[in-house]
């Protein structure tokens, strides 16, 4: 029986004036579909659904791009044919979409025999495709890339029905728009790293080879391009430098080291544009030179791995235009509110900060999980009772440990523009169970945090997402304004950023096999 060519049936229903819902019902597993947010000036302006349809020939496929605006209304489709493509990023400006793909002669193909797979020409490229909203493809550019592919067998268990290639670029594709000017692309492969600028017609303006580092983060701000480079194998976290370039001609600005005035490395928790000035800012933690950079267990967080927090505002291209604020607790200046190891007295816990953002009043908020540490009375008592056996007490303490840890609620810390750090609020979250203090910390904390904003009301929100619920916290009102359960019957619910002043509620019904996308306003 012939399989259907369409993987999704989209049914639109409007509920009220402030929210729109789109139902995506699964009707076939025969094809691949990817959904991407359309970003302009670091703001979500729409959605794109990229679908690989049926195979058109021995080495090519039919593709379809469906476009939706920020309210989930369908605004157009684009159909084309090409060899194996994998969509990696999308950017938008001046009514032009720029899409970045990894293109491969073997992508999506299953070979019956291993010799056939090895003898096949394996050629990879990073492709940029420039498309208008009415479906016209303006230009397609290809940059040869070395994707480190490996050949793997397909099938389950002992049954092997073929072979296919898998692999990825050394450094992922990052694509941004530069407002009113064009687009900038970054990626890295086995041959090095590339930073490339394009105009709106798809013509390349300039291309730079970037020295390979451990990791990179790309940001565009006004007419500038910034690339944060993390030092290779020097630090587990933190360190590196910030490079800036003029978009028009690629001219480089002086580099900024990710260190404080005493040479201590800085971590990165946020890298974005200030919501008021539009200038770049960075913020994060100051790493302790003795206890930092080797955090593996919950206990490591209680030994003082960080000395404090920082913010950095890039208001120009010279040294005098860079405003840095450092707040340290290691020196005892924050006591009694925060001790020298990062223990917050009012919260009665250590703070394990993981996300940060800036509000419309210049405040910087740091968000993470609370960690508490307790003595394991039972293990110590058992070791005391077994003292006559001589060897048994060390064995008990070695296996069980003397302390235990668990994560409790989410903690919000506020750093004012004047450099005053205060405990702001605790968001009730599902607590973990007590584990040995020397346990892997990732087993205790699997929450996600991110921020949302409403430019009209100039309100900023924290989203704390744990295993049970999603809490939306208004930082100005210091109040949780919405709690959304993850699971209700057969429906599993998630939350994602949407257009400005709104958020998206994603509901997946496992039994009925459909996904509901709803755009709702922030209060």
Please provide a written account of the structure.
With 523 residues, this protein is mostly beta strands. Helices cover 5% and strands 55% of the residues. The strands form nine sheets. It has a six-stranded antiparallel β-sheet, with no helix packed on it. Strands 25, 26, 27, 28, 29 and 30 form a six-stranded antiparallel β-sheet that branches. The chain has a four-stranded antiparallel β-sheet with strand order 3-4-5-6, with no helix packed on it. It starts with 7 loop residues before the first strand and ends with a strand. Mean pLDDT is 86; it is low at 1-19 and 379-384.
Mean pLDDT: 86
User: How many E-type strands?
Assistant: 38
Low-pLDDT segments, ≥5 res: 1-19, 379-384
Give helix % range. under 10%
Structural class, please?
A: mainly beta
Strand order of the largest sheet: 1-2-38-37-36-35
Count up the helices. 3
Q: In percent terms, what proportion of residues is strand?
A: over 45%
Distance between the termini: 51 Å
What is the molecular shape?
A: globular
> Main beta sheet, described?
6 strands, antiparallel
Rg of Cα set: 26 Å
């Amino acid at each position: 029986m012939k399989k259907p060519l369409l993987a999704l049936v989209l049914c639109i229903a409007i509920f009220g004036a402030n929210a729109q819902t789109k139902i995506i019902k699964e009707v076939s597993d025969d094809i691949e579909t990817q959904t991407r947010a359309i970003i302009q000036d670091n703001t979500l302006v729409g959605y794109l659904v990229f679908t690989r349809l049926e195979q058109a020939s021995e080495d090519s496929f039919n593709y379809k791009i469906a476009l939706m605006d920020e309210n989930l209304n369908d605004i157009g489709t684009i159909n084309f044919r090409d060899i194996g493509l994998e969509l990696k990023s999308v950017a938008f400006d001046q009514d032009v979409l720029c899409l970045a793909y990894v293109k491969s002669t073997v992508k999506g193909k299953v070979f019956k025999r291993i010799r056939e797979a090895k003898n096949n020409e394996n050629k990879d490229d990073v492709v940029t495709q420039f498309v208008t909203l009415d479906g016209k493809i303006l230009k397609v550019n290809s940059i040869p890339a070395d994707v480190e592919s490996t050949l793997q067998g397909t099938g389950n268990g002992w049954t092997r029905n073929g072979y296919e290639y898998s692999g990825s670029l050394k450094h992922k594709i990052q694509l941004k728009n530069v407002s009113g000017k064009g687009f900038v692309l970054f990626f890295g492969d086995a041959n090095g790293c590339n930073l490339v600028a394009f105009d709106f017609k798809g013509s390349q303006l300039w291309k730079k080879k970037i020295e390979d580092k451990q990791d990179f983060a790309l940001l565009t701000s006004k007419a500038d391009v910034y690339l944060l480079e993390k030092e290779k194998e020097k630090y587990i976290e933190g360190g590196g430098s910030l490079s800036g370039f003029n978009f028009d001609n690629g001219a480089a600005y002086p580099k900024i080291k990710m260190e404080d005035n005493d040479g201590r490395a800085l971590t990165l928790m946020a890298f974005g544009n200030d919501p008021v000035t539009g200038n770049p800012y960075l913020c994060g933690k100051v790493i302790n030179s003795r206890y930092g950079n080797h955090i593996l267990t919950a206990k490591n967080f209680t030994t003082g791995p960080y000395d404090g927090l920082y913010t950095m505002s890039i208001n120009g291209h010279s040294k005098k235009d860079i405003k840095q604020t450092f707040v340290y607790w290691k020196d005892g200046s924050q006591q009694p509110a925060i001790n020298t190891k990062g223990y917050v007295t009012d919260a009665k816990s250590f703070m394990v900060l993981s996300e940060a953002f800036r509000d419309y009043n210049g405040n910087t908020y740091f968000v993470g999980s609370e960690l508490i540490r307790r003595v394991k009375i039972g293990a110590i008592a058992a070791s005391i009772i077994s003292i006559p056996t001589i060897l048994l007490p060390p064995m008990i303490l070695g296996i069980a440990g003397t302390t235990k840890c668990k994560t409790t609620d989410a903690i919000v810390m506020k750093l004012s523009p004047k450099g005053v750090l205060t405990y702001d609020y605790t968001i009730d979250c599902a607590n973990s169970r007590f584990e040995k203090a020397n346990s892997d910390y990732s087993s205790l904390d699997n929450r996600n945090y991110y921020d949302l904003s409403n430019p009209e009301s100039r309100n900023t929100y924290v989203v704390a997402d744990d295993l049970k619920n999603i809490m939306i916290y208004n930082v100005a009102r210091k109040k949780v304004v919405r709690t959304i359960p993850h699971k209700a019957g057969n429906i599993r619910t998630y939350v994602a950023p949407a257009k400005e002043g709104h958020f998206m509620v994603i509901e997946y019904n496992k039994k009925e096999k459909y996904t509901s996308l709803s755009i709702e306003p922030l209060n």
